[in-house]
User: What shape does this take?
Amino acid sequence: MDHQTIKRILVFSLCAVIISLSGCSKGEEEQKEKEVVTTVLEKLFTIPNQKMQDAYEEATKMAEQDSSETTEPGAYGVYDFQKLLEEMYGSYFTEEGIESIPYWIYTNLNVYAADRDVTVTFKSADVQPEESSEGNYYTFVTELEYSIGREEASFEQNGTVLFEDGKIKNIYFADGLMTEIENQLFM
Assistant: This one.
């Protein structure tokens, strides 16, 4: 073999190694992001959540105290959930991403859990990558079970997640669970 052939073989081998390493890291990144989505969904859909219920109770007490101390109409206390959300989910979300968590998940569901004997249990999540020019994008179908008192039911919650730099930039939930529970409660 001549010198040029050996060089070509070495360059080709080096390129093959680099391509295989970059393919592995992309697969590892995808697997890690899928695990993050599953973990976040499990945390969000384990209701009641004691930290969130405590925050709701604190907000209710503040509202009662504020309204008794003023004659202004509509005076009420407001709990700032942002700090609590950052504490609970900050390692999974970008700053913008935390703001995309729907209000009904961390408030209404926990209020119903406290006031109307509602529980939600995470069973599993099917997280699938999708093509996107904006970043790493996933769709998910979450299998949930919920109960209102002694009545139990299953539910599939659908949604999407967009990652940026290894953290969730946006999470979106299709209409579903909250409407389902409210229909059961108020029919």
